[in-house]
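Exam prep: given the inputs below (a chain plus 2-acetamido-2-deoxy-beta-D-glucopyranose), describe the expected output before reading on.
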Amino acid sequence: MAAAPSLFKFLLVLLASAVKALDKVPANETFRYVNQGEYGEFINEYDATYRTTLIGTSPFQLMWYNTTPGAYFVALRMGTSRSESVRRWVWEANRGRPVGENATLTFGTDGNLVIAEADGTVAWSTGTANKGVVGLRVLPNGNIVLYDKKDRFLWQSFDHPTDTLMIGQSLPVGGAKKLISRKSISDGSPGPYTLVMGTDSPILYVDASPKPLPYFRYDPDMGYSKTNGRVTFQYNAPDNVSYELTLNGRILTVTKYDSVLSFLRLEPDGDLVIYTYDDRVDYQAWEKTFTLFTPVNFLSACYKPARCGSLGVCDNEMCVGCPTEKGLLGWSASCAPPQRGSCKVGANHKYFKVDGVENFLARYTTALNATGVDDCRRRCSADCKCLGFLFWEEASKCWLAPVLGTLDKVSNPKHVLYIKSK
Ligand SMILES: *[C@@H]1O[C@H](CO)[C@@H](O)[C@H](O)[C@H]1NC(C)=O
Ligand SMILES: *[C@@H]1O[C@H](CO)[C@@H](O)[C@H](O)[C@H]1NC(C)=O
Ligand SMILES: *[C@@H]1O[C@H](CO)[C@@H](O)[C@H](O)[C@H]1NC(C)=O
Ligand SMILES: *[C@@H]1O[C@H](CO)[C@@H](O)[C@H](O)[C@H]1NC(C)=O
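Solution:
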């Protein structure tokens, strides 16, 4: 049979021409950076040390950075090199998956951007090998894009948010993508707070078992809108006199100077903050142009779940008391719910009472209908995750609390908390 080999040959030629037709990254546009050598000399956010690459567009630059010895991340840094101000980290590629000394950042002719350990183990990649990518660039708004021959973005960092939204970056409504806070200043892995674009409003959640609990949402009537099911962090200067930073229509803040170099971040403490960079000045170029939990916004720092750590009474922005079985003592960072042994469901738990307080549960979570305080107590005792319960004596409203956290002092003494002790 002579037909089979010639057909086979024909298919081979066809295949070869198909591979040839596939677009490649020109060799002079590829790069490979090894994570080794001297650290940079400038001051960076989180006291991070860094090693630079040549990838960037002012004021953004891609870097290796670390806050812990031997645990490196590839991240985008914001701030000009001449500036004497701190430079901030606005996006991270291999978040939660650090690599070591001599790791590599490679952009090959196949169009895949890859972070690998020194031994070649891949830690992170854009997954764009042989998809038609012909180049990579950093846009002036901080979006890192991999584009094809027709300049369509086959991958963009804006689709992979960390804890930050840049101007022009959006989140889909419904929570398929969200901002997740850092665990702490020194630990950039995903922390307990999330920002989700809800159907009627942006919502902030704190991790809790069995499910995350809301600790802030905007009033739905406050001009929240969506475009194509997405909410975008935007900059708007209608008359070159005032400069607005908005979530779609909703104005978060108005600045006196051009604030196009701004970003919105969910902070490690659960606050929502806008940082604005003024690239005309070298010294103190950053300003916090928006903070969610401040009296200016008719909100208090006392509304942040962990303003007072795992437990504390908060009044006038300050942590003022630590509730204990012996009464209210002075607050310190070690204030915590009582240590309890292994939980026995239905055991006769003891509780102690704190008068005139609420926490975030009462503001954003629907109450249980209890027949009275004994009913609410019984439900908490039946639930090992319940650390205590909020009770509104005048309305018999009951909230079981898997998180206690900051207790906001309120004027109504009938809004009380019972903390489970033994
Ligand atoms: C690569 O080569 C092309 C064509 O010669 C040129 O237009 C482009 O600027 C070069 N890129 C770099 C990064 O040198
Ligand atoms: C990194 O590679 C260099 C050689 O390029 C080598 O001298 C050094 O020991 C390596 N460092 C580590 C931690 O493996
Ligand atoms: C605002 O400034 C920009 C750039 O300087 C200019 O092009 C635009 O016409 C100005 N708009 C108004 C309303 O003055
Ligand atoms: C509580 O009771 C009210 C009115 O009696 C009712 O409208 C509401 O749905 C109830 N809530 C729950 C969670 O059962």
